[in-house]
Amino acid sequence: MKTKFQVLLLCIFISAGVFAQNTADVKIVELNTAGFKQKVWNFDSNKSFNRIGKLPIILDFHATWCRPCKMLAPHLQAIQNKYNGKLIVYKIDVDKEPELARLFKVEAMPTIIFINSKTSYKSELGYKDLNEFETLVKQYFFKK
Q1: Taking the C-alpha atoms of 68, 49, 39 and 110 in order, what is their torsion angle to the nearest 10 degrees?
Q2: The pLDDT value given to residue 128
Q3: Is the bond preceding 74 in cis, omega lying within 30 degrees of 0?
Q4: Residue 12: its pLDDT value, please?
Q5: Strand locations in 2-116, DSSP E?
Q6: Domain boundaries, the chain
Q7: Residue 13: how many CB atoms within 10 A of its CB?
Q8: Which of 37, 69, 106, 122 could make an S-S bridge to 110, C-beta 3.0–4.6 Å?
Q9: What is the residue-averaged pLDDT of the chain?
Q10: For residue 22, what pLDDT band results from cuts at 50, 70 and 90?
């Protein structure tokens, strides 16, 4: 027969497992033009690229009909979860926000923009697997 202490420990371990499995993903925000101007770059007041904030930013220019974009989405979520508080991932639908796509000369999807500098950014085109994507994140944001 189990003691009350053993039952209590069992309950704690079961609860811990349940809570660990239910940990929610950090929400990736879908930006429209107004949100972009508030969070990334107000191109009305600064014609030259001049980003807002200090954390590194990943912009995911995607389309709902784009299969590689859908394949990349879980990788972006994994990166946002892993580096929460160290970088920010934003999604931008090119069909809803063509002006933002033009600003970054996005002509194909997915296009990922890495912003780590106040006045410059790097872009990457096409699907990358999670390892390739994390290598890029480390290269652009966390060089040692």
Answers
A1: 0
A2: 96
A3: no
A4: 45
A5: 29-30, 57-62, 88-93, 111-115
A6: 25-141
A7: 10
A8: 69
A9: 88
A10: very low
Mean pLDDT calculated for residue range 80-96: 97
The mean per-residue pLDDT over the stretch 102-119 comes to 96
Can you read off the two tokens belonging to residue 93? 């639908």
Position 14 pLDDT exceeds 90: no
What CA–CA distances, in Å, run from 33 to 38, 40, 76, 111? 9, 10, 21, 17
pLDDT of residue 143: 85
Terminal alpha carbon distance of the chain: 55
The catalytic site residues sit at 66, 69
- Of the candidates 41, 34, 42, 32, which has an alpha carbon nearest to the alpha carbon of residue 93? 32
Residue 122, SS3? Answer: strand
The topology (CATH level 3) of 25-141 is Glutaredoxin (3.40.30)
Judge contact between 58 and 87, C-beta under 8 A.
Answer: yes
